[in-house]
Amino acid sequence: MSKINPLSLTYLPGLSFFTTREHLRTLFAPFGHVKEAFLVFDHKTGRPKGFGFVSYDSQIEAEKAIKAMNGRVVDGRIIFVEHCTSAILK
């Protein structure tokens, strides 16, 4: 992951195990330039853990995504979109 401004990083808990990185990029692109979209996987099993991150160029773009996407149904699951905090990244 490249250097990311934490204010432009969104945290996505509650993702379906079927959600792909490409699908996240497509879903979140309308709100600004998506720098990175990534999912977190279990290193032992290789399976998704059900959460990920989307980073934008600016905090304003991230806030647009949070307002528009929080609580939406994606791949059969209600997703949550929130600002990423340093506690989440640990």
Automatic annotation (TrEMBL):
<keyword id="KW-0694">RNA-binding</keyword>
<dbReference type="InterPro" id="IPR012677">
    <property type="entry name" value="Nucleotide-bd_a/b_plait_sf"/>
</dbReference>
<feature type="domain" description="RRM">
    <location>
        <begin position="8"/>
        <end position="86"/>
    </location>
</feature>
<dbReference type="GO" id="GO:0003723">
    <property type="term" value="F:RNA binding"/>
</dbReference>
<dbReference type="InterPro" id="IPR000504">
    <property type="entry name" value="RRM_dom"/>
</dbReference>
<dbReference type="InterPro" id="IPR035979">
    <property type="entry name" value="RBD_domain_sf"/>
</dbReference>
<dbReference type="Pfam" id="PF00076">
    <property type="entry name" value="RRM_1"/>
</dbReference>
<protein>
    <submittedName>
        <fullName>Organelle RRM domain-containing protein 6, chloroplastic-like isoform X1</fullName>
    </submittedName>
</protein>
<dbReference type="InterPro" id="IPR050441">
    <property type="entry name" value="RBM"/>
</dbReference>
